[in-house]
Amino acid sequence: MPNPVPSPEVRSVAGRRPGVVYEFGEFCLDCGRFELVRNGHPLRVERKPMELLILLASREGQLVTRQEIAERLWSSEVFVDTEHGINTAIRKLRHLLRDDPDDPHFIQTVTGMGYRFVAPVSAAMPDLPVEVTPEPALATALPSRRRVMGWYVGAGVCVVLAFGSMALYRARHRPPEVRYTQLTDFTDSAVAPALSTDGQMVAFIRGGNGFLTSDQIYVKMLPNGEAKLVTDDERPKYGLAFSPDGSEIAYTVLERSGFSTYEVSALGGEPHLLLKNAAGLVWLDPERLLFSEIRSGIHMGVVSATVTGAGLREIYFPAHERGMAHYSIPSPDRLWALVVEMNGNGDWAPCRLVGLDGQSPPRPIGPTGACTSAGWSPDGGWMYFTAAVEGRSHIWRQRFPEGEPEQITFGPTEEDGVAVQAKDGALITSVGVHESAIWIHDGSGERSLSSEGEVVGNLSTTFSPDGGVLYYLLRRGEGSGAELWHTLVDSGKSEAVFSGISMTAFDLSPDGKEVVYTTAASEGSTQLWLAPVDRSSPATKVEVSGARSPHFGARGQILFQQAEGNSNYLEQINPDGSHRSKVFSYPILDFQGVSPSRRWVTAAVAVAKTTGRDLPAITAIPLDGGAPRRICASYCVQRWSTDGKFLFVGVEDPSGTSPGRSLAIPVGPGESLTDLPAGGIAPQAKASVVQGAQSVGRGELVPGKDPEHYAWVNTTVHRNLYRISLP
Predict the structure, then answer these.
(1) Model pLDDT for residues 590-617, shown as the tens digit of each residue
(2) Residue 559 in contact with residue 544, Cβ under 8 Å?
(3) pTM to 2 decimals?
(4) Once rounded to an integer, what is the mean pLDDT over residues 480-496?
(5) pLDDT for 399
(6) What is the DSSP string of 655-705?
(7) Per-residue pLDDT band at 141 (split at 50, 70, 90)
(8) From residue 556, how far is each of 18, 229, 505 by CA, in Å?
(9) Is the confidence at residue 40, as pLDDT, over 70?
(10) Are 601 and 593 a contacting pair, CB within 8 Å?
(11) Predicted local confidence at residue 67, as pLDDT
């Protein structure tokens, strides 16, 4: 009797592997193609969420425990925090399926146990390219039996093919497996690793942030030495580097006058000044240094000089006057450098390859994403980067000089910082996870507001005019943008304001009825939109490209930051796209916000000093004319209360071990700022600096109506150092 099951050759067409196709709601999940489609449109799904969706859909209505999920999806990845990985994968699936965890239509949480796929699922094997006809004698008997057996066989085939597809996906999308060796085991974090020349010591910052942090520097002998504290320095710092003989550690400090480089003994002790106006310093050899310096304002570029500061030579400065080249990592032959820089909007940009001889034009290098660290292989043949691509920071590598970037680490954990061991080319990096949640402080104390996703930050969070609703950007999937959500302060109920719209920035109108926002467009540009909060009408596109930091003006117009040439300007435009113009004739560095009455805009501007250099200062500029008022003596974070009666100014760095501190400064009638110090509020100023000011125990916060009412985004970071052995 002929076999009614087609041969493997018949089952494969153009490389496609058939598998069960699940349909639920408006979605179609093709296991064989590892593809999720909504209303005919394929969706971009990461590997782990796709694997989890296949597992849940194949077990419709059944409880799938968290332990089973961890064993099925992460059994070979022992260095991964599976709890965080499962939470992240579930969050991303709910985002893709537009599922509400409080009223689930697809994925139901079984508290303390796992998850259940509650949507009705229909399953079918895809049509086969060749129809095999049974023998006539069996023609009447087989159809019903085959139909029944097909469902049982189909479900089993789907599971087999699905996990076969997972293996195939891994093989196609991942390079040979890397090996991880854990070097630190802190309950908090170890970040920003730097290696001594002989590779025997690693210096790092113990804390959640490696850039401009008040956390302290530690040193550890590799591989199993005890970590030793070497600094007691509360100033914001970054950029660790060993001296050529390994006896000293240089690091960058942000002082009132700008950036300076200090040295401290690798055994610990008092730091001493090495070089002023110097950041990200490294040694080219025992006599020559490579570092960054500020030319004017905050325009920072790469230079070289001797250890005494003599023979200064400019190597590279970003074109935009707000650009900042913070680090430079020289190649082993000292002919090239990888530069880590911020662009004209103050965001981390892709890394740049620069010739140290000044003859080769600088060019972007590595993945297209926010590059925050880089390194070279011992022979100079590979360049390594940690870069945030589509919202996740991982390690990438690229052949020097013309190779293509390739990702070498994956998963729900992220990597930050990279140092390369000269002996064997192994990488030292910080591996871990971070989570964020919104907290509220009011007269009854402090409490957390649940948010299923990553809240983008304090500066992207605001209260409604009456203080009853909190608006924020929530990232629930991959990508640089996030959805706009709001939470009712009293009840804690949360929902998306515009589901499926990925924003990069937003502002709420003075009456709380409209939102102006930007979305990512092609080639790093943005598009400007206007929409009613109640969704009573569709969003309207405002015909301007490249706008940043949108805010409502006093008469309904939209204010925004716009790059023109190598400078930023504050511009305005009517919602219908008419009457576009510059608000001020002079450039700004950053547009920070608008007061509630729309009398003042606050921006970072360059202020001339007697030293001959321009330094940034946060300034309030009246929109109706008049003299600007300097808020801070240097760079600071400031926000207005919802009623405009208080100005909150951050006076201590909030990225260290403490939450920092702000001053709540009472504002006079008509939002007058007459009592501010003439030179601005100094860092770490006491409340007595302004009459009636109050000290508030948060450095970065989202003000409510008074000093007792505010919110903040609390980010929890857990990272440790790992050694990554490459294949």
Answers:
(1) 999 999 999 999 998 876 544 445 667 8
(2) no
(3) 0.74
(4) 87
(5) 96
(6) TSSS---EEEEE-BGGGB-TTS-TT-BPTT--GGGSTT-EEES-SS-EE-S
(7) very low
(8) 56, 54, 18
(9) yes
(10) yes
(11) 87
The mean pLDDT value for 685-694 works out to 91
CA dist., res. 253 & res. 273, Å (int) = 10
Q: What is residue 145's three-state secondary structure?
A: helix
Averaged pLDDT for residues 459-479? 86
Q: How far apart are CA 224 and CA 158, in angstroms?
A: 47
| Domain extent listing, the chain | 8-173, 179-433+719-725, 444-587
Q: Of 371, 254, 329, which is closest to residue 655 (Cα–Cα)?
A: 254
Backbone angles phi, psi at 150, to 5 degrees: -60, -40
The CATH architecture one would assign to domain 8-173 is: Orthogonal Bundle (1.10)
697: its two tokens: 């125990």
From 362, 434, 473, 485, select the one nearest 715 (Cα to Cα): 434
Q: Is residue 415 classed exposed, middle or buried when 0-12, 13-18 and 19+ CB atoms within 10 A define those classes? A: buried
Buried/exposed code over 559-590 (b: 16+ C-beta within 10 A; e: otherwise): bbbbbeeeebbbbbbeeeeeebeebeeebbbb
Angle of helix 82-97 relative to helix 47-57, nearest 10 degrees, comes to 80
- pLDDT (mean) for 205-234: 94
pLDDT at position 147 over 50 = no
Closest listed residue to residue 279, CA positions, set 296, 258, 265: 258
Mean per-residue pLDDT for 20-45? 86
Rounded Cα gap, residues 19 and 57, in angstroms: 13
Read off the pLDDT of each residue in 676-705 and give the average, rounded to a whole number.
90
Decide if 70 contacts 86 (C-beta within 8 A).
yes
User: Which residues, including other chains, have CB under 8 Å from residue 33's CB and lie 6 or more apart?
Assistant: 16, 17, 19, 165
Would you say the CATH fold of 179-433+719-725 matches that of 8-173? no
444-587 belongs to CATH 2.60.40.10: no
The residue with greater pLDDT, 612 or 627, is: 627
d(CA 691, CA 683): 17
* Homologous superfamily in CATH for domain 179-433+719-725: TolB, C-terminal domain (2.120.10.30)
